[in-house]
Amino acid sequence: MRDFAKELTYKTSRSSGAGGQNVNKVETAVAALWKVEDSAFFSEEEKVLIKTKLANRINSEGILQVNASEARTQLQNRKIATEKILALVNAAIIKKKPRKKTMPSKAQIEKRLSAKKKISEKKESRRFKF
């Protein structure tokens, strides 16, 4: 897992929802922002992979934004936002293994066909015959 937290910038805002004075006065919600193109931690190939997999989360300026407003303090929300964005990006750079095509063995094919035949015969025997 790569830690590119040094490249993140943070923006704070007031949290929404219930909470009384704390919500109305204190800017506890945190948005973690990361410019994908300016990253020194990832190769060009990995940046392309990140852009394609996280396209719906990256805005038109090429900035990936993750918001956190679960906790009551700005410090906790900053930590949560950082963990979220690191997990997102690190999951995006993992390449999927290509599927190897395989053929079922003759024994497997025979087993499947005999099971089908057995079920067919069972159902046939249930029929009312004249």
Automatic annotation (TrEMBL):
PROSITE patterns, alphabetized: RF_PROK_I (PS00745)
UniProt-listed Pfam families: RF-1
Superkingdom field: Bacteria
Biased amino acid composition, Polar residues: 10-21
A GO molecular-function annotation: peptidyl-tRNA hydrolase activity
Residues covered by the Prokaryotic-type class I peptide chain release factors domain: 14-30
Region (Disordered): 1-21, 99-130
Biological processes annotated in GO: rescue of stalled ribosome
Ranges of biased composition (kind: Basic residues): 114-130
Family: Belongs to the prokaryotic/mitochondrial release factor family.
PANTHER family tied to this protein: PEPTIDYL-TRNA HYDROLASE ARFB (PTHR47814)
Protein name (record): Ribosome-associated protein
Species whose genome carries this gene: Cruoricaptor ignavus
